[in-house]
């Protein structure tokens, strides 16, 4: 599966760039993580400060599809597939953070975003067809040809941004380039990678920058869309928790002129955070991970997993283990109440995995989910659909046939 996921990026393990995060090891990997860490944890999260708010037509409003949802719900409630709408939002906002590009894909079709969505679904389809694992066979099929075409679209887009940006960097020089970026607050992930040097002081080649950018697009969109979709589902099924979250957001913003969520506000939404965490427990977007044992692992009962074995770790299984989580199927945000800390192992809750190869985008993802959820609940009520969704674990945890909810605007009085 990993190999197929990598070929999404046009990279087989052999051809893969040594910078490719999912494959990296050693010094380059550490440097790559530090770079990404610096960027994502500080600079990029601070971008949330800049999410402009309604009533002016603005950036985040568009990314979040709020205007679209308002249009769709003018006649009362609308039945919407959360995955469809929220994926566009996460893709759009990542494209902005990585490339400083406004796709406006909520309103008009974007070739790039359509290509990423197509690649994700083709990988899942190919994964089910063992005989198509071999590239040369796969590329002879219609799906294989569609896959190559979509890869070209994605790569051409990224290459064009890198080419253009490198050209500006070369003509302006590093100091001028950084000054201009700082002034316009438009330093993005591509810029950071262009300015980066490896441990020998060498710049990264363009193909490595492309692989990094595409990896973040790939790793960041579906996962966050799944996390947000399922938390909306859980809050739709538990109106009392939904209302409590809404009141928390309303209270936070009550004396403000505009409904603007600041970076520091994200720590002031404890109940909403508890609801997101409980949803990530019950519906972890990434349901399993694998690890190769670099040494013999002795289990508590004395059995040994020998060095060299690959182990599949079920995040879903850990999160549903009744001896750690009593009544595991019950959605209960109070499990994560910071006021009543539980005596649980930190490894009992691992939606972002654990250890040195855990999710590099987790702070970014949590921030995006909090902002998106807070702004959504401020304007809309979500209600369950008549049909219960069935979980469908693919690359990420989806729902069979989509995750449908009813969305209705809150009355002006209620706001
Ligand atoms: C709710 C949202 C997210 C969830 C649940 C999630 C989950 C995970 C998990 C479980 C892993 C570990 C995979 C493994 O161990 O094999 C991982 C790795 C990774 N994630 Fe996320 N992720 C999320 C959002 C993001 C975002 C927003 C980004 C980037 C913008 C991102 C980028 C990555 C990258 C690059 C890796 C590989 C890190 C490495 O190997 O060193 N993720 N993610």
From TrEMBL:
Record's signal peptide: 1-16
Cofactors that this protein relies on: heme
Residues that, per the record, bind heme: 359
InterPro entries in alphabetical order: Cyt_P450, Cyt_P450_CS, Cyt_P450_E_grp-I, Cyt_P450_sf, Cytochrome_P450_Monoox
Keywords linked to the UniProt accession: Endoplasmic reticulum, Heme, Iron, Membrane, Metal-binding, Microsome, Monooxygenase, Oxidoreductase, Signal, Transmembrane, Transmembrane helix
Compartmental location: Endoplasmic reticulum membrane; Microsome membrane
GO cellular component labels: endoplasmic reticulum membrane
SUPFAM superfamilies recorded: Cytochrome P450 (SSF48264)
Organism superkingdom: Eukaryota
One Gene Ontology term of the molecular function aspect: iron ion binding
Membrane-crossing segments per the record: 26-42
Protein name: Cytochrome P450, family 4, subfamily f, polypeptide 13
Organism: Peromyscus maniculatus bairdii
